[in-house]
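REQUEST ID: PR-0412
SUBMITTED BY: lab tech R.K.
PRIORITY: routine
TASK: structure prediction, single protein chain
INPUT:
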Amino acid sequence: MRGWSRSRWRWIYVAVATGVLLLSVAPLGTPSGPRWLPAPPDKLAHFALHAALGALATAGWGPVVGIASGLWLGSCFELAQIFAPGRNFSLGDMAANFLGAVCGVVIAWRVFRRGRARR
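STATUS: complete
OUTPUT:
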């Protein structure tokens, strides 16, 4: 992590966010095929993906942007599912998205703050 510029973290964030968006609107729950994940692991997947996004946003821009992007992207990704076949909007998924982002922000902020203190 040492020596990585903020711009590199920002590009990684954009790539991961794009991947999460594509997964969010992919027609995974169509009647013709099985769902990838049942309900509880589904929430864990939402939590983990948005924790990664929150951590990357914190590394690239700081904790305020990390939390704001968690709320914004979590909401947008869930709303985008309204238009995806076989997908639906879920407040539970949105909550998992936001809680994951907050946890990712807190962990990344502590790691990066500790790294700066050692220098």
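NOTES: The chain has one domain: 6-118.
REVIEWED BY: pending
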